[in-house]
Each structure stands twice: as structure tokens, then as C-alpha cells.
Amino acid sequence: MSGTAQIGVTGLAVMGRNLARNFARNGFTVAVHNRTTAKTDALVKEFGDEGSFVAARTPQEFVAALERPRRLVIMVKAGDPTDAVIQEFAPLLEEGDVVIDGGNAHFEDTRRREKDLRERGIHFVGVGVSGGEEGALNGPSIMPGGSVESYESLGPLLEEIAAKAKDGTPCTTHIGPDGAGHFVKMVHNGIEYADMQLIAEAYDLLRAVAGYSPAKIAETFRGWNTGRLDSYLIEITAEVLAHTDAATGKPFVDIVQDRAEQKGTGRWTVQIALDLGVPVSGIAEAVFARSLSGHADLREAARDLPGPSASPLGEEAAAAFADRVEQALYASKIVSYTQGFHQIRAGSEAYDWDIDLGAVAAIWRAGCIIRAAFLDRIRAAYDARPDLPSLLSDQKFAEEIGAAQDDWRAVVAEAVRQGVPTPGFAAALAYYDGLRADRLPAALTQGQRDFFGAHTYRRTDHEGSFHTLWGGDRSEVTAG
To answer: Residue 264's CB: how many other CB atoms inside 10 A?
Structure first.
């Protein structure tokens, strides 16, 4: 082999295989490698007519097949397996070569790996890839982080294989240094968790309160998908709800156990948000809702606890309620994206990444799981005001959420009255009300902290920190 491949992919499970095929379909010669050579042979045999592949059986053959600077994509499980592959290949590489991790790595691991390889003169790029198996093959949203020099080498290839927005723009851009790409992908997945939870709550309300069948709810979601809620998740929700189980003839959703699993990126989003001091309550509630769904024994033990049971509405009232649910869903979705973009901004400031929020919104417009029509408006909002403190500070979004709030409140109140859990809707509304409040009860909380722990407090009428000497008849205030 004499360095004829523009890029190489090692790790040929479904995502790696499809990514390699995507590169080949777009005219690149692709070196392919897997620890199990049978997977390498199978890929070339089955899909060799899609483009130019170079099958490599050893790491040495794989590296030799790549033209300089070498671009090597790792598509293996995150964590120790990724480190093992890096340790195997790094000694074979030379200064200026680029190692790309396309897995769902924790951004702190990416920062560590980037630093280690940079000291050896090798570029390391942590790339978030969203779109699942189909996206990897036909065009995903791609979020690369790393040095500017690495993107100069890798970027043109990523731009070819990425999804294209309606205006033809590739859904990829240089996010920022070291772990910025994987950080943005992590937050993307957190928003995805929240989005899915909100959609699930809308389904539950339409079924329990409006009395709609899954097929009727599918029709409702199809209608919503032609308007401002137009998105991939709304689209596939309609498909799932319309599906009938072949074995039983029942609605598919009724034969699936109500236990939602998770791979961890949603948890990471919440954990890092806590570290950064960013309120992502909607994402957190989505993570906890999945966790609660998995505690089958706990739920079974609590099945007979007292509380109201949902009572379906009449046809006319149900239709009006469905319209209110659409308003609540839209408003809550805006809040979820608001929280996610706030976290990206906070991460960018904490790690000195200088992330362009408008560019992030732009590359999420196609290919990724949370692609939605209103991302174009989010992009425009941040392009117009890069310093926009919150999406809710944008006049158009503020007007829309203001117009939706009466129905939003009515839906949450009806859910509480009928005993239907809506942690996502309720958390989003509480966040909205918390932001717009003149004063929060945190003043009392800080007073309590000063009482039991002398933690001090700040006053509204003087600068500085203060502590009250509590107890007895004394209540003296001293400057801290």
C-alpha cells in the first residue's frame, strides 16, 4: 500500500461502516480496518461498488494506506476501547497527522487526548456525529472540535459527507478547540432527551385526557409537523404511533414496555450543567423521568397510592385541549433549546472555546436527531445578536411564548388535576416563571444559610457581604 487513501476508518460496526461508505460515495478513497478482519472483508465485498476502498488487515497496513497528512477516524466504543486504539496507532503516525474520534466520548476525555497527542505533534479531533445509522450513511450533522490546522485538513472532507440544510449549507463547522465538538454533541443529546420527554408527555395527555387513540394521536402529530413544530422527532413520533404490532394487532406503543433506557449523554449534560451552575431543569427532568420508568419494583409498590384518575373529555373539549397541548409543547421546546444554548455558552466561556451559537444552530438544521424548522430562526437570532443572553430575550420567541402561556398553564393545571405526570412541561413553565420573576424566594434561602452556617448574604441597599448575629434578642448586622 502506498498512501492512496484520503481518509481511513477503523472500527467497522454499523456507524463506522456507514461513515466509511459515506466517504466512498462522495468520491474519497477510504482505507478500512477492523480488529476482526472478517468485518473488513465483508464491507468491501458487499459495498465495494459504492466507491474506492482499501482493505487493511493490520494497523501498519492501515497507516501505510493513508496519504499525508494522514486522517484516521476511530469508530469504537467510548472510554477505554478508544484509548486502546489511540495507543495502538499513535506510534505509527507522524507529526501533522490527524486522529479523529467519532464516538460519543466525554469531552474531558477528548481534552486529555488532544493534549497528549498535541505534545507528540499529532492533531486530535473529537467529532460529535448525530443522525444515527441513516445519518452516518446519508449525511449526518457533524460537530468537530480541535485545532484550526486540523480542520483545514479534515474540514473539506466532512463538508462533503455532512447533511445539507435547505439552503445547501453543509451541516458541519469548526466548533472550537480540544473538547468543544464533543461538548456541543453532549448538549445536543441533552436537548434530545428533553425534546423526547416533552413529546411523550404530549402523547400521554392526548391519550389520557383527550381520550385519543394512538392512531388519532398520530394524525394529530402529522398535522403539527406541517406547522411550527415541524421536526424529525415529531415526524417519527407519528410513524411510531401509527404502527400496528403484527403479532397482536394492537397499537405498537401498547406492546412496548414503558421503560426508557439511556446511554449516558443526557446524564453528562446534567452533571456538567451542575458543575457550570447552569439551570437545565427540563433536561434534568427528562433524565429523571427515564430513570423513574426503569424502577419497575418501586412503581409497582406505589401503584395503589391515592390520587385522581384521568377522565377523558368529550369530543369538542378534547379538540380544544389538543390545541392547548400544541401550545404547551411548543413553548416547552423553546425553553429546552434555551437551556441547552445557555449551557453551550457557559461551557464556551469556562473553557475559552469561543463557540459561535448561531453556527451551532445552523449545523443542527439537517442530519441530526433534533433537527427542526425553528432552528433556522434560532440561527438568525444569534447571528443578529451574538451576545443574546437567552433565546427568550429574542423578541419573536418572547412574543410566541407569551402568546402560548395561558394554554401552557391550563395544560399543566389540567395534568395536575387529573393526575397525569408532566415533569417536562411543569419544569419548563417553572423556569420561564423563574426568569421573569421580580424577586425569587432565594432571598429566604440565603437568610437560612446565614442563620445556620454564617454563610453571609448581600443586601439590596449596600455593597459587600453581611452576616447577622442571630439568637436571643440580638440581631446585629456586621459587614463581611
So the answer is: 14
